[in-house]
Write a structure and sequence with these properties.
Number of strands: 21
Largest sheet: 9 strands, mixed
Shape: globular
Strand content: 15-25%
Low-confidence stretches: none
Helix content: 25-40%
Mean pLDDT: 95
Bound molecules: ligand LLP
Oligomer: single chain
């Protein structure tokens, strides 16, 4: 893995030993490699270069402000799915014009914030956090709209605020991406997007609204998609819809193809990104040459293999049939194994010569391994990082590296069982930067410190949030 490798039996992040980072900042900690992040971003751009795509990084994959700034520096726009992510992208220095706002459940407050900086959800904190005023920041570059109801609200709010919203309609192409059912988004039974046969009607109804600019179509079929065929099928659906719309007098200037490309959690389990770019190019090239713009929104393929979670073994418990390796990271730190039965390669950060892993597999062929369940401290049996995994001997105090944890790791952490969120570190060559402090335990209690009576007679004035 780029960025993380064993040298002399010790795991390194770029030029720095992972143990030294863990000793300095404690565990559990997410460590990101700047070199790996840059390399994966460039690979994405390269894979889709025939289409001259504009890349909007899916902030939800890994959203630390410093990682966003690094990606901005490489030219990325940002794809956001909540008012919180919108403000995050803006704080990180993304101009509003380079932010696309997706998501099925946008509230009026979020839509307003995306339309007009006076309604920033940061309120008076905007200047302190971003170093600049939100007022006057303008409107996001694109709204990816998921329902007729949302489109209507967007039109009403844009009219009220005297602005104009650029819109892509998210299409549900009813294509099976053959991934885990929880991260399948392009099938008819999923809540995402608008059915193909309804799209033209929306253009008929809304295209004349002065406060809307219906520029194109959006699709995102799911995440961790390993096959090319579902993308080809979804793109075909879009292309024929473009033909139908243009024939009906609605010019289409933008297609947003979403993200979703799988990465290697085990060696060789995913296709090179090139395969996706190459398969889609022939379907779109002639239109691109005639001026159609293509946008993509990758998250995992940029962030996953640029991140490692390091956790310390707290206890080892021998059972009659299995050994439990109990760590300070668990489902509160990395929920993917519990939620999607996801595989992450896990290995001690120090390995004897013969036990240095040469490949990430479920069953490494190395001597003296023992079946282990790697688990966390949470009071649930769903709290595991790996089950029945052959691992070297480990002892209390040892460190384990959980690989490919850069996407949907930190961003899905929780405070369950009152564990503070982990620290985040960025390694760039030999430079180590703490980019996210371990959450202070006291902050967990802040919102509950001062109970106050809610005045129901003046409900509109009551502030129940903290
Ligand atoms: N665009 C939209 C509209 C999305 O919903 C997503 C991901 C992406 C782009 C980025 O997809 P990516 O390139 O990262 O696959 N928590 C799950 C993944 C959920 C993905 C949600 N949407 C996991 O840990 O596997």
């Amino acid at each position: 893995m780029e960025g993380f490798e064993y040298r002399g039996g010790e795991l390194f992040a770029d030029q720095v030993s992972v143990d030294s980072i863990a000793d300095a900042v404690g565990t559990p900690t997410y460590i990101y490699s700047a070199a790996a992040l840059r390399a994966s971003y460039r690979r994405v751009v390269e894979a889709f270069s025939p289409l001259g795509v504009q890349v909007h990084y899916a902030v939800k994959a890994s959203s630390n402000l410093h990682l966003l700034r690094l990606l901005r520096g490489l030219g990325a726009g940002m794809d956001v799915v909540s008012g919180g992510e919108l403000e995050r992208a803006w704080i990180a220095g993304t101009p509003m014009a380079e932010i696309a706002f997706a998501g099925v459940g946008k509230t009026d407050e979020e839509l307003r914030a995306a339309l007009d900086g006076r309604y920033s959800l940061l309120g008076e904190d905007a200047r302190r956090l971003a170093g600049r005023d939100a007022v006057g920041r303008g409107t996001v570059g694109l709204f990816n709209v998921e329902s007729e109801s949302e489109l209507e609200r967007l039109a009403v709010l844009a009219a009220e605020l005297g602005t104009k919203a650029k819109v892509c309609i998210r299409v549900n192409p009813d294509v099976d991406p053959q991934t885990h059912e929880y991260i399948t988004t392009g099938k008819e039974e999923n809540k995402f997007g608008i059915e193909v046969h309804r799209v033209r009607g929306l253009f008929e109804r809304f295209s004349r609204r002065r406060e809307l600019d219906l520029v194109g179509l959006h699709v995102h079929i799911g995440s961790s998609v390993r096959q090319v065929e579902p993308y080809v099928a979804a793109t075909r659906v879009l292309v024929s819809l473009v033909d139908e719309l243009e024939a009906a007098g609605y010019p289409i200037s933008l297609l947003d193809l979403g993200g979703g490309w799988a990465v290697d959690y085990r060696d060789g389990e995913s296709l090179p990104l090139q395969a996706f770019g190459t398969a889609l190019a022939p379907l779109l090239l002639d239109r691109v040459e005639r001026g159609l713009k293509i946008l993509i929104e990758p998250g995992r393929s940029i962030a996953a293999n640029a991140g490692l979670l390091v956790t310390r073994v707290q206890h080892v418990k021998e059972g009659r049939k299995r050994r439990f390796v109990i760590c300070d990271a668990g489902m509160q730190t990395l929920v993917r194994p519990a939620l999607y039965q996801a595989f992450h390669f896990i290995w001690p950060t120090r390995a004897k010569d013969a036990q240095v892993p040469t490949a990430w597999t479920t069953t490494p062929h190395l001597p003296d391994l023992r079946q282990s369940n790697v688990v966390g401290p949470i009071c649930e049996s769903s709290d595991f990082l790996a089950k029945g995994r052959p691992l070297p001997e480990v002892e209390r105090g040892d460190l384990l590296g959980v690989f490919s944890a850069g996407a949907y790791g930190m961003s899905m952490t929780s405070n369950y069982n009152d564990h503070p969120r982990p620290a985040e570190v960025l390694v760039d060559g030999s430079q180590v930067t703490l980019i996210g402090e371990r959450q202070p335990l006291a902050s967990l209690f802040e919102c509950e410190r001062q109970p106050r009576t809610v005045d129901l007679s003046a409900l509109e004035k009551a502030e129940v949030s903290c």
